[in-house]
Write a structure and sequence with these properties.
Number of helices of chain A: 16
Oligomer: homodimer
Shape of chain A: globular
Helix content of chain A: 40-55%
Number of strands of chain A: 14
Radius of gyration of chain A: 25 Å
Strand order of the largest sheet of chain A: 1-11-10-9-12-13
Strand content of chain A: 15-25%
Largest interface: A-B, 135 and 135 residues
Chain lengths: ~425, ~425
């Protein structure tokens, strides 16, 4: 049963905090222990461990975890034409938006003879993880592979769990290939993360790992990112979330459809509606009941709706304040002149403006990335973009005169910090005859 | 005693790996346990815990950990004029280079009627940590506070350990104030990180914590960043490092001065010279001996030089390859036409080009940031810049026609992923009479 609307103004501070709280995102001790074991085994036994873990967790014993060129070709050949067209359309839009994100080099002469630069380089080796979970996720392959290709990362590998018959999902293979990733391994779960972080005979070690996953994958990413021998990661992850702000002019059917689309991701999906109109809240609840009936993932949807929150606020100003406090992954604005709210939105992963912008276009094909900060991390993290596949390196070059003009500054600051060799590195130069 | 030069070509693979290895950067179990205790106590007891921990670790019992306006004014009044000028010069140059890093908003119409945007927001609350360690570090205050101010983070607080007399270092107060931070707390170590991550009655909780520190601070940052109730952090940290690439034309006195400047940071500093000229290597060793004599931190320098590495390579091409493999925090190029090497440098935090560019100008005042990735993290992390004080939020807005043109794409991809509510969110809109 969908929850009943609650009135924000009638709640005290503690009730408000409780209403906006999320289920704990930290892995429990048992999960961390199990993942720790998997990481250790892969570190120690490499491919042998991967094979054994594949039998245990994926129920399949693979001679070769690498997807062959033949398997990739067969996957594309088997794909209906309209499916290929959809994948290509998604790739084209995501590519267009992400290409615009490539940073330009910066050069600034901060003083005469003191030239500072910033240049970017792609990360040498990146690992992309595409989960299977309740369904294959070719869209995740697109969202990870396209920015990696635009950044120009020389080594791009992708891991995705094998199916029971030992094959990889053909749509994932197809999407990855068309988005520029040709090295694909049939590996899932924590062992996939371990393989990419530490490397094995078959799987090259990468510098950074990207992509969503279940609790095991998330814990594994967190653990390898804290290991100096491991790899960096894109961002911490939690269950997917949507927050809709709607006023009395919104179409309740549209609002309900967006809430249901979020709810079908998983029973732990976070679904929040904020409205200043009691009547709309009631109509949305009705629509949730009606529209839910036709959905194939009805049970997941119902489970997620159990903890959905429909909150009636006194104004859209309050709605925006509550949303900024919650910091949702996805924020949908369905109000009169929705764009006018945008400047006051501070904390959100991605924003969907107006009646014709359902979240599902961002999930698939508008061009924005669907890998976004959950669990309130939008307060401090950005969604995935080309930047996260690059590193910025600074450069400086001084002339003799430039150095001379900074001599007193270095001397004074080195003096404060008791670092005479820092000052000497300047004076030894300026006092030399070279 | 400075180490003796070794010849790269005479080493086997294992010896090369050993030569380029760093001391373990992971906190040992005892440190993590101690830090875990401190985090728990601050989380539970707030200010009372901070006071108690201040007595234990800083040897001072403070009624009020907040630096008063009077203390800040007195610090500036006591500062010699040339010191203030040096601080202001450093701030001006760092500001100029970092202002150029502010990203522009992006708008792309990926298809007719499908508008995607990326806008940036400052992180609401940031916490800056300036260690005291063997000496106060006003330069760290500049490097952290200036980009935070340029990004426009509304809440910027700074923690720095109190001195035995209960005051904060006046140079740090002065630099922080002039760089735009006026909320300063006399707090050091893991308890400072805990206070900023979780908040106490006196210290506001922040969204992200920046800055260097000792093993306790580093472990505390790592632990709060893994805690969903904690805070994000800038980057993992390890001992400071320099790698110099020099050819036979380099001035050995300049090279030695840079190595010594790095060595004086701490006995765990990493100091590496790569040269294709045996004679230069020998001259640098002589210069290290001579120049070291005049330094006040001779003992620290000697300890760091014990594990310095002077490596003779067959060519500068090899030198660059070895440097890229090592991925140094600071890379100094002192060779004929040093700039010509730059395009082949992939992994480094900051690069210093030519004879007139000692690392100490970057540490203090050229304009680049001195908070840089150590321990090989330059392979996957950038040095500090304005970006890390911002978050990128994406936005999309479709027209009815734009949505209509993506209908088949969403349908096909939602079909592959078994997510019918995702497709329904589009069809319910296009089939409505609104």
């Amino acid at each position: 049963m969908p929850v009943r609307p609650v009135s924000w103004s009638k709640l005290d501070a503690a009730a408000r905090t409780a209403l906006l709280s999320r289920p704990g995102a930290a892995a429990d001790a048992a999960t961390r222990r199990a993942v720790g074991d998997i990481l250790e085994r892969v570190k120690r036994d490499g491919d042998a461990a991967l094979r054994e873990l594949g039998v245990r967790y994926d129920g399949v014993d693979l001679d070769d975890i690498a997807v062959s060129e033949a398997e990739r070709r067969a996957a594309t050949a088997a794909m209906p034409r309209d499916t290929l067209a959809a994948i290509d359309r998604a790739i084209a839009n995501v590519r267009r938006f992400h290409e615009a994100q490539l940073p330009q080099p910066i050069t600034v002469e901060t003083m005469p003879g003191v030239r500072c630069e910033r240049v970017s380089h792609p990360i040498d080796a990146v690992g992309l993880y595409v989960p299977a979970g309740t369904a294959p996720l070719p869209s995740a392959a697109v969202m990870l592979a396209v920015p990696a290709a635009i950044a120009g990362c020389p080594t791009r590998i992708l891991c995705t769990p094998p199916r029971r018959d030992g094959s990889a999902d053909p749509a994932v293979l197809c999407a990855a290939g068309r988005a520029g990733v040709s090295t694909i391994f049939k590996l899932g779960g924590a062992q996939a993360i371990a393989a990419m972080a530490f490397g094995t005979a078959s799987v090259p070690a990468v510098d950074k790992i990207f992509g969503p996953g279940n609790a095991f994958v998330t814990a594994a990413k967190s653990m390898v990112s804290a290991d100096p021998d491991g790899a960096a990661i894109d961002m911490p992850a939690g269950p997917s979330e949507v927050l809709v702000i709607a006023d009395g002019g919104a179409n309740p059917a549209f609002v309900a459809a967006d809430l249901l689309a979020q709810a079908e991701h998983g029973s732990d999906s976070q679904v929040v509606l904020l409205t200043d109109d009691q009547r709309l809240a009631a109509l949305v609840v009705e629509q949730l009941q009606t529209q839910r009936e036709g959905l194939s993932r009805r049970r997941i949807v119902s489970a997620a709706l159990e903890h959905a929150r429909i909150i009636v606020v006194d104004s859209l100003v309050t709605a925006v304040a509550v949303s900024n406090r919650y910091a949702p992954e996805h924020l949908i604005l369905q109000s009169d002149d929705a764009r006018a709210l945008l400047p006051s939105i501070r904390n959100a992963g991605s924003v969907f403006i107006g009646p014709w912008t359902p979240e599902s276009v961002g999930d698939y094909c508008s061009g924005t990335n669907h890998v976004l900060p959950t669990n309130g991390y939008a307060r401090s993290y950005s969604g995935l973009g080309v930047d996260q596949f690059l590193r910025q390196m600074t450069v400086q070059e001084l002339t003799r005169d430039g150095l001379s003009s900074l001599r007193d500054t270095v001397s004074a600051l080195a003096g404060l910090e008791g670092l005479d060799a820092h000052a000497a590195a300047v004076t030894v130069r300026l006092e030399s005859r070279q």
